[in-house]
Amino acid sequence: MTRWRGLDQTAAKLWVAGKQRRVNWPRPLQRLDPVLFGVVAAAGLGLAGLGWTLAAVERTRGFFDPPVAAPVADPRILSDFRRAAAPFADAVMLGDDAFLGRTDGTICAMIRKRNCFPRKRCHKTTG
Question: Is 74 domain-assigned?
């Protein structure tokens, strides 16, 4: 009989503890149920998928790309030398400039500091 002596006291303690548990707020982990977790996870995956899709569409369509750059006139283009029919005969360096001579008598100077051939520095020689 000694084994059952404290049974009433143990039951009373459990009853008081249960009463306090029923009155207190549950812990956060006790309130989260699998359905709520599933809804939050589905919403997160849906938003991530939507963001990935919009990023892929923007990458292929280029909505936010800067405008295409317009061509700029470049004085270094050798258009006047390519149009000339006479081939080069000789070239001489004088200081920082290079003087190029063609077989038809045209002598042009190349400004090496700017790396260009100004048109006003091409002269037709007589002789």
Answer: no
Structure tokens at 54: 């919009």
Residue range(s) defining the domain that contains residue 119: 79-124
Q: Do 52 and 98 have their domain in common?
A: no
Residue 47 lies in a domain: yes
**What is the number of residues in the chain?**
127
Helix (H, G, I), strand (E, B) or coil at 92: strand
Question: Which pLDDT score is estimated for 126?
Answer: 56
Total Cβ atoms within 10 A of residue 122: 16
pTM of the model: 0.34
pLDDT of residue 82: 52
- Say how far apart CA 121 and CA 98 lie, in whole Å: 11
**Angle (nearest 5°) at CA 66 between 60 and 67:** 100
Which of 40, 121, 57, 117 has the alpha carbon at shortest distance from 81? Answer: 117
Q: How far apart are CA 63 and CA 57, in angstroms?
A: 9
d(CA 108, CA 93): 12
Res 79 pLDDT > 70: no
